Amino acid sequence: MKTNSIVLVMTKDVVTVSPNQDLLDVKHIYEKDKWHHHIPVVEHDELVGMVSLVDFMYNIVGAGINDNHEVYKNLKVKDIMTAKPFYLTTSDSVEDVAKVLSTEYYHAVPVLEGNKLVGIVSTADVINYYLKKAV
To answer: Domain-by-domain residue ranges, the chain?
Structure first.
């Protein structure tokens, strides 16, 4: 492993959803504390999409916290996810992800090893890495 491998900063225990899961499941994930703003969508162990907090909020307008609202019954993850998301691999470095997060419109990037999702890196993860390195 590189001394500055992306593996050093990524969150490894990633909670994922499947494309056919109910949107209500996404709501419950976002209601938990300390959650990344992005949720990887996985099907047959392969990354097929990402759901961002913005995607979610845009699609639940009017539903609010009411678990019984129609939007939660009618929409599936596949209806709101971004398909074929950008990703990095375990061979990439912290600098690689820092460049992507600072120049592109991403706030979190999934990390793959082969075709398998093994982690996710957020802007906060990279900032914390550099802050710890500075002291």
So the answer is: 6-134
Residue 113 pairs with which residues in a beta bridge? 116
108 CB-near residues (< 8 Å, 6+ apart)? 36, 37, 38, 50, 120, 121, 122, 123
Confidence of residue 3 (pLDDT cuts 50, 70, 90): low
Which parts of 31-134 fold into alpha helices (H)?
A: 53-59, 70-74, 77-80, 94-103, 123-134
Give dist(CA 97, CA 117) in Å, integer: 16
Instruction: Place domain 6-134 in its CATH homologous superfamily.
Output: CBS-domain (3.10.580.10)
The answer to whether 11 and 40 have CB atoms below 8 angstroms apart is: no
Could you tell me the pTM of the whole model?
0.88
